[in-house]
Amino acid sequence: ALLPSPPRRERRGLSCILRTPKAGFRDTASGGLIIQSISNDVYHNLAVEDWIHDHMNLENRQILFLWRNSPAVVIGRHQNPWQECNLKLMRQKNIKLARRRSGGGTVYHDLGNINLTFFTTRKKYERMENLKLVVKALKALRPQLNIHVTDRYDILLDRQYKISGTAAKLGRTTAYHHCTLLCNADKFVLSDVLKSPYKGLKSNATPSVPASVKNLFEEDPSLTCEMLLDAIAEEYAMQHQIDHHITLINPTDETVLPGINNKSKELQTWEWIYGKTPKFSVSTCFNMFYKDSVLDVKVDMDVKHGRIEACNIDLPEEWLPPALCSELVKSLSGSKFCPNETTALSSTLLRMCPQDDELHSKWNLLCENMTMLM
Amino acid sequence: KYVCVFDKSAFKFSHQQRLFRTSAGNLFHNKIILFCYFMNVMLETCVYWYIKEGDSVSQFDSICEVQSDKASVTITSRYDGIIRKLHYNLDEIAYVGKPLVDIEIDASKGVAPEEDVVETPAMSHEEHTHQEIKGHKTLATPAVRRLAMENNIKLSEVVGTGKDNRILKEDILNYLAKQTGAILPPSPKAEIIPPLPKSETVPAAPKDKARKIPVPVSRPIVFSGKDKTEPITGFHKAMVKTMSAALKIPHFGYCDEIDLTQLVQLREEMKPLAQIRGIKLSFMPFFIKAASLGLLQYPILNASLDESCQNVTYKASHNIGVAMDTEQGLIVPNVKNVQVCSVFEIASELNRLQALGSAGQLGTSDLTGGTFTLSNIGTIGGTYAKPVILPPEVAIGALGKIQILPRFNGKGEVFKAQIMNVSWSADHRIIDGATMARFSNLWKSYLENPASMLLDLK
């Protein structure tokens, strides 16, 4: 299911774009290179970008990297996942969360979305040219498509719907520009998952700019991701005067990409995904229903590097023994802003409490509500 | 003096004289300004500092990462020096044309003359500006270039061992050493080589040979690893509290060996049946059910002692905890009311808890209310253990790995037996050795002869 289908004849009668795995892709002739990942793992694929950015000399060569991911939400380098997406829903649906190294906003990836990364030297970094290339390729495939590039580097369909978003990373000598392209992604999951239920968050993380999206498939049901990838690769090959040749790469192969597995591991650590969130504060209140009464609870927290720096819980007096409350607050300080951690922590603390069923149920109720904030 | 970050002219030493004015005590300040690389954007956001004030940086080290207009840019240092001031805090907006960071560079190391004029020698300017080795530009800091120049060394002949094949000071020194054949001493004093102890002395050469046998210089072994201190937070902090309280309980241990040969066979037969129902069947459901049957006979093991040690509460429910090793560490979810569950139901519940545990989604109700715990440490390894009781419980059992060992049967013949060891710990304040031993024997008998469980199953 990972490898693309066998080559097909292009509508325009040009020679097929051959797809073959090739071990030493670093040795190909200079000019341009088109590579495609055989993996749908977002972390592995992001690691390939890192690897090329860190290790390849792009003085005489430019690279186009084609990749697709199984369901995942990808946030920008400087964003706050709690502000951007519904983490609870993602956990339930087993949708991964990744933080990329480039800037920009949050996107939803699934196999109906294609990702394109244009690697160049820093001097030759030119986003508009890249996006124009994509538009040209799409128009060659389907001339009736009404698509254009905005000055915010989005690609719009019918002047209304966003079908592509852009982000970039500039290093010392190399740069990359990557963008998405919606072919037939699940728009329902997309909108559910990119809606944050968390209230009372305040931070100066980069906010995403919401946009109405549409799949190209909706415009023309005969379009598939395969066809889009083909068309874009062909246009790139033409503009860079290279062979219509796509090299497949395995993003876990250390012989081709030495050190890549460390990179993908780093991208999966909690410290990277959540810990790199810029400082933010949570100030919210919720109601708890216990027996016949409704209680008002007010919570204030400061979160830095994904960990709770300061925490304050305002409960009705004497509902829980004050010593216990302060024990909870003390334990939360320094703890990860994470429902799993909070649950484990609070359950463990309960062992130290008097064995009173009523106390236990109150405690569990409070802790469950606290974890809902995360 | 202000220098533009993206101006390459700073590199060309050849046709310029650079004047570094110093006066006693003051070092020359060189400020880096964030030049407007993004022509149509007025603001940048200072995202992440790689360094802090007081750090020393080398040329090409990353200073910070800045976000601008959907692009994340890495800014690197042009100079070696010490970071003196960061003009922006994390996440603040930096302005184009204003200073970003102050780097203090050392005008001249060691000696500090009033005026130090660096002039490049007449020979091979080109060598020093465009250093090409195998098509790559040579990276070397100004200090290193000067050292090479002073010693008339061509940088193209030196192999760089630093980042990006950068030529470091050590590389120049090694190159020099190879040229002169000298062993470079770390300090002048090391010229005096201490006499070697007798056992290590090289055997004396015969008198007629004029050649000297080189004597190895003993060098101190340098290990540059550093200790790392981290605060204990969150879940681990809570565990520290729990375990400290647990050790206040006077523990006693009791161990035994269980012959699981019959149970292994039974499980093999049951596994496909459970699979059809969509459940993975391990040994744990049997261990848990047998424990519950034992607790019916010895309810003191399913009890709790209050803080003042005045009252014992016999818990009605057998909520048997199963220790799980997760990313965070030791988590103990429990199976509720084992006393009214069948082995299959227990297996099903274990599957659910294991799935939640590995996904990191166990809820508070799963993690609280346990009355007795079993720890299957044998899946990782080990035979005997000394488990620590989890308050407010009073007993715990640790199960070692199942090994195939030779044992004697009733007829005195040796046969292959599947042996597992169990190590119990109990609270000696309310549980005595005899009770523990009898409970263990009963539990053992159920497992060694699984059919006997049928008699007592409720």
UniProtKB/TrEMBL annotation, chain A:
Where is this protein primarily located?
mitochondrion
- What's its EC? 2.3.1.200
User: Per the record, GO CC terms?
Assistant: mitochondrion
Named from the GO MF annotations, one term is:
lipoyltransferase activity
Pathway per its UniProt entry is:
Protein modification; protein lipoylation via exogenous pathway; protein N(6)-(lipoyl)lysine from lipoate: step 2/2
InterPro entries the record matches: aa-tRNA-synth_II/BPL/LPL, BPL_LPL_catalytic, LipoylTrfase_LipoateP_Ligase
Q: Where in the cell is it found?
A: Mitochondrion
> What is the similarity comment for this entry?
Belongs to the LplA family.
Please report the name of this protein according to its UniProt entry.
Lipoyl amidotransferase LIPT1, mitochondrial
Q: What is the lineage of its organism?
A: Eukaryota, Metazoa, Chordata, Craniata, Vertebrata
UniProtKB/TrEMBL annotation, chain B:
Q: Where are the transmembrane segments?
A: none
Which stretches make up the Peripheral subunit-binding (PSBD) domain?
139-176
Enumerate the UniProt keywords alphabetically.
Acetylation, Acyltransferase, Lipoyl, Mitochondrion, Phosphoprotein, Transferase, Transit peptide
Identify the InterPro entries for this entry: 2-oxoA_DH_lipoyl-BS, 2-oxoacid_DH_actylTfrase, 2-oxoacid_DH_E2_comp, Biotin_lipoyl, CAT-like_dom_sf, E3-bd_dom_sf, PSBD, Single_hybrid_motif
Known cofactor(s): (R)-lipoate
Which SUPFAM superfamilies would you find in this protein's record?
CoA-dependent acyltransferases, Peripheral subunit-binding domain of 2-oxo acid dehydrogenase complex, Single hybrid motif
Q: Could you tell me which residues belong to the region Disordered?
A: 188-210
**Keyword hit for Cytoplasm:** no
For the keyword Nuclease, the answer is: no
Family indicated by similarity: Belongs to the 2-oxoacid dehydrogenase family.
Provide the protein name.
Dihydrolipoamide acetyltransferase component of pyruvate dehydrogenase complex
